[in-house]
Amino acid sequence: MTTAHFVYVIECADDSFYTGYTTDVERRVAEHDAGDGAKYTRGRTPVELRHTEQFDTKRAAMAREYEIKQLSRPQKERLVGES
Q1: How many angstroms separate the CA atoms of 67 and 73, rounded?
Q2: Cα distance between residue 2 and residue 16, in whole Å
Q3: Nearest Cα to 49, choosing from 78, 80, 77, 23?
Q4: Could you give the CA distance from residue 34 to residue 56 in angstroms, rounded to a whole number?
Q5: Domains in the chain, ordered, with CATH?
Q6: Which residues of 16-27 are buried (b: 16+ CB within 10 A; e: fewer)?
């Protein structure tokens, strides 16, 4: 069995976006919501999952995570609007 790898974008309570990598989107979003996720999202709860993409390899997912993090705010808004 192969593990699925995901890139996700969540919207924080302050309307900012956070992009991350995980193998379990539901668990990871719950961690962010509970204040146990990334340092960036602590104090910016509640968060809402806005976008996910699935990949076969961690390498591909991490490359896409980097690409998304380089996007401008309007580009990220278009990306999550397409979800």
Answers
A1: 13
A2: 33
A3: 80
A4: 28
A5: 5-81 (3.40.1440.10)
A6: ebbbbbbeebee
* Number of CB atoms found within 10 A of residue 47's CB: 22
Alpha helices in 7-72 (DSSP H): 25-33, 58-69
pLDDT in tens, 14-55: 999 999 999 999 999 999 999 888 899 999 999 999 999 999
Indicate the SS3 state at residue 40. helix
Q: Is residue 16 within 8 Å of residue 9, measured between CB atoms?
A: no
Q: How far is CA 29 from the centre of its chain?
A: 8
Residues belonging to the chain? 83
pTM above 0.85, yes or no: yes
